[in-house]
Amino acid sequence: MKQIFFILLLISSLLSKELILPVEESPKVDIKKALLGKKLFFDTRLSQDNSISCASCHDLSKGGDDNRQFSLGIHDQIGELNAPTVFNSKYNFVQFWDGRARNLKEQAIQPIHNPIEMGSSMPEVVKKLSQDEKYQKLFLEVYAGPITQEHILDAIVEFENALITPNAPFDLYLKGDKTALTQEEKEGFELFKSFGCISCHNGRNLGGNLFQKVGVIKPVEQYKDKYLGRYNVTQKEEDKYYYKVPTLRNVEKTAPYLHSGSYTTLKETVSFMMNHQLGIQPDDETLSKIEAFLKTLTGNRPQILEMD
Ligand code: HEC
Ligand code: HEC
To answer: How far is residue 269's CA from residue 252's CA, in Å, rounded to a whole number?
Structure first.
């Protein structure tokens, strides 16, 4: 009996601490590659009609997303998914809501080819950029070679590797500064653990390391037969309504929320989570505390954004 109690205690202490880790303070990146990647990230020539860049949908002056319910691609075409943040995305175990890209390199090519996003192709992009002498010089300097698909994607990924938002108050707290959180924020973290949010939102990104079903306890009526998530990749019935658990880092800046962009406030979103994932009807005090905790996950802007 005592042994079981001890094991439970051990598990819960593991859950409360080691399951969440701070992000790197200064991620190791090749600065030259990352700065070239930064130029590419902001370059509208990656789209068919030179109107859209990665930054159009991933605004780095805000939360790394576009603050729209659904993203706007070329010719004002509207997608069916809410854009996730690109900040700290290197920590995700796979990319996209349905996890169809295994890493950032596999991811980066997709919006370029997506007809409702950038509507172009890699050969087209290589051709356009090759007409720019400044780029030719830069690629030669950084890659000792010409402008190729491989080099373009590599540079973009290196830039994304630098898009880490360090020293959020919660990270300072994790590193031992007990004054980094207020009493209310600490209570919010305690609730986050005791309600079991942490069983899905954990790891460095408080998310991004597993697929989970939405509607575990209570199915979500408005999701019925809409975007099916992981099922689109595996075609397995049991994967319907499974999505990559999103990161909660910088979440106060990334409204609207969920893949469906259904809610504009954190309180509504947390209430949705509690209802559908945990079967709990929260009161306002509980929501305020969890919201206060979530706001401590806002980190500093990545250093690479101040460099050129
Ligand atoms: C038209 C808007 C749009 C453009 C342009 C765009 N994205 Fe995205 N991005 C999205 C949307 C929407 C998703 C989610 C799509 C999905 O999950 O299927 C996404 C997902 C991502 C993800 C995955 C994040 C995660 O947590 O899963 C990364 C990384 C990313 N984009 C980087 C880029 C890069 C790099 C570019 C430029 C080459 C780019 N995006 C261009 C809208 C856009
Ligand atoms: C069973 C796993 C699970 C549990 C438990 C869970 N979540 Fe989630 N959470 C998810 C998934 C999956 C999504 C994406 C849902 C979607 O797109 O419809 C999500 C989305 C969110 C979002 C929106 C993030 C964004 O950028 O769109 C917030 C905020 C959130 N959860 C907070 C919480 C809180 C707070 C709790 C505890 C009260 C909690 N979650 C419990 C799996 C879970």
So the answer is: 11
| CATH of 17-23+166-295 given 1.10.150.20, 3.30.590.10, 1.10.760.10, 3.10.105.10 | 1.10.760.10
CATH of region 31-161: 1.10.760.10
Residues with CB under 6 A from ligand 1: 46, 52, 54, 56-58, 71, 73, 79, 81, 83-84, 86, 89, 92, 95-97, 104, 107-108, 111-112, 117-118, 156
* 162, two tokens: 């630098």
Per-residue pLDDT tens for 260-296? 999 999 999 999 999 999 999 999 999 999 999 999 9
Q: Which amino acid appears at position 296 of this protein?
A: T
Query: Does the predicted TM-score (pTM) go above 0.90?
Result: yes
Ligand 2 atom closest to residue 82's alpha carbon, by position in its atom list: 27
Task: Return the H-helix or E-strand segment holding 127.
Answer: helix 122-130
Residues of the chain with pLDDT under 70: 1-18
Burial of 210 (0-12, 13-18, 19+ CB in 10 A): middle
Tally of CB atoms within 10 A around 158:
22
Q: What is the pLDDT of residue 9?
A: 47
118 φψ region: left (φ > 0), alpha (ψ -120 to 50), beta (else): alpha
